[in-house]
Every structure is written in C-alpha cells, then in structure tokens.
Amino acid sequence: WRLPPGEQQLSRTALVMGTLVEIKAFGDDEEQLDSAISKAFAEMTRLEALLSSHQPKSEISRLSNSADEFVASPETIELISLGRKIAERSNGAFDMTLGALKKLWAIESENPQVPSEEQIAVALQGVGPEALQLDGNRVRKKLPGLQVDLGGIAKGYAVDRALALLRAAGITSASVNAGGDIALLGDHDGRPWRIGIQHPRKSGELLAALELSDRAVVSSGDYERFFEQDGIRYHHIFDPRSGQPARLCQSVTVVAADAASADALATAAFVLGPEEGLQLLEQLPDVEGLIIANNGKEWQTSGLPQSQ
Ligand code: ADP
Ligand code: MG
Ligand code: MG
Fold first, then answer.
1. Shortest-distance ligand to the CA of residue 262
2. Fold of the 63-141 domain
3. What would the pLDDT profile of 202-236 be if each residue is shown by its tens digit?
4. Segments in the chain forming alpha helices (H)
C-alpha cells in the first residue's frame, strides 16, 4: 500500500519493561510524530521505574518491603484498583500478590528450578484477592511480608499510557506494541489494523489475523518465558491455587477497549482454562478472546473480529 500524499510513517523501537517495544505513528508532520513517540517512550520508562518488581527502588518493591500502610502514586492506585476488579471477576485466578511465588520459581533467571511443595506453600501464605486493600491513596497488605507483583497487568497499562500520549499530541493513527501487548489508535491507512496472532507451538506461524480499530489486543502464552526440566515445561503464569504453572492453556488472546484490562484478563483466562476462561470473556461487554487449550484445540468468543 501507499501512504496518501504528505503522509509520513514513523516507527521506533526501544527496550522497555523487559521487552522490545515498537511504536508506530502516522501523520503529516514528521517532527510532531518524532516528539510524540519520544514522550510515549519516556512515559513507559517512567512507569517501569514505578511498577517493576525487578527494580529494588520502584514503588512496588517499596510496597512489598513495607509493613505498614503505604501511600502510593495515583498510577499505582489506579492499576491495583483495576487489577482487584479482575481478581474478583476471575475468582482469584488473576492475583497481584504472587510476588514471593514468582521469586521462588525465578523462571526468568539464569538458574530456574522446580521448588519443593513446602517452599511453594510458604510462598502462597496469605495470598489472594483480599490480601491487598485500597483506601483512597493508601494500600494495605493483610500480611506485612506479602510481595506484590503487577507483571500480569503493568505492561498493558504502560502501553495504554503511551498511546494516550500519542493521542494527546494530536496523532490519529498509531500503534504501540510491547512484545504482544498492543494498543491501536484509529485506523491504519483508512482500514482497520490487521494484527497477526502468533501460533503457540509453531514459531513464526500465525494462528489468526484480527481486524481492529481503536482497540487493544494482548496475548499471554507458555511459549515465551519458560524452562524445561525432565521433559516438563515450566512457564511464568501461575495457578494461585497450586502455585504451579497453569496447565490448561497454551495461549490466550484478549481484545478489549484498553490494554491493561486485556493484559489482566489474558492472564486470568490462561489460569482458568478454556471453558471458564471463555465464559469470563464472553460475560464482559466489549471483550473478545481466542484461547488455545493444552490439547491444541481453539476456543473463541462469538464476536472475535477475525479477518478472512
Ligand atoms: P507476559 O509475560 O506475556 O506479559 P502475562 O501478562 O500473563 O504474560 O504476565 C505474566 C506475569 O504475570 C508473570 O511473569 C508474573 O509476573 C505475573 N503472574 C503470574 N501468574 C499470575 C497470576 N495468576 N495472576 C496475576 N499475575 C500473574
Ligand atoms: Mg502481559
Ligand atoms: Mg497479562
């Protein structure tokens, strides 16, 4: 395809939140596009410094280390509040209190290992949707030692905020893609954006293509961050009931109005499995999804905007 006369496309990438982020924007003023993209990346880096549990000085790390009520920034409050809603809706499948469990498995480290049942039981002490309470700008943990982890929702949130900055700069067509957490502004060259969904077992092969405008689409899978021991795949999405990697799905893709919700819902549906996960997505207005079960079977919601 060709861009209309005077129309420019600017695309830049950067490493943020542990992943390669690509921002694309369209418009007739290249300087405007460039400055807006810079602001969007700066915002994502700022949010990473606030929300990451890998950075010892982040607000989330300080919250995890604090024994008392914690006064948090509006962004952290907004994100925990959204996460709590999805935690409740998913009966606790989405859980922002699994920080100790995540550290125990250390899936993304050099030497991940399968922990013992005793270690897992200790890491699961006191976790759950009720363990993190909000009161105005304060966060309360039910147990002082509770470790907070927003890894299942923060990337989506940062993608939303980056897109909001592009919009505020007057841009009407843009995409932000953080390793599969995607938010889309407007159309692409007068047509919906066409977004390919990666096959969870065939690298480089697409499972489906979706046609989307002004939407977010997020995929969660067991194929990107995992290790193998004795022929078993151990990945980074945990079932809070067992403390083990969730076993019912290979991948979940969620389409929603915002990427933060899509991110958390994808993690939740992955834990719930195809039947309950699909039920959760189908219940929510304006949300669609595509789930690949552990046997490779495809499950999708009734309104998935699949391109032919
Ligand atoms: P991706 O890494 O592709 O963004 P997810 O959005 O599913 O995948 O996020 C996985 C991360 O979410 C994990 O690395 C961990 O930080 C966190 N997490 C793991 N299990 C859960 C869970 N049951 N609920 C909420 N967050 C989780
Ligand atoms: Mg994610
Ligand atoms: Mg997620």
1. 3
2. T-fold (1.10.3980)
3. 999 999 999 999 999 999 998 888 999 999 999 99
4. 30-51, 59-65, 74-89, 99-105, 117-123, 154-168, 259-272, 274-283
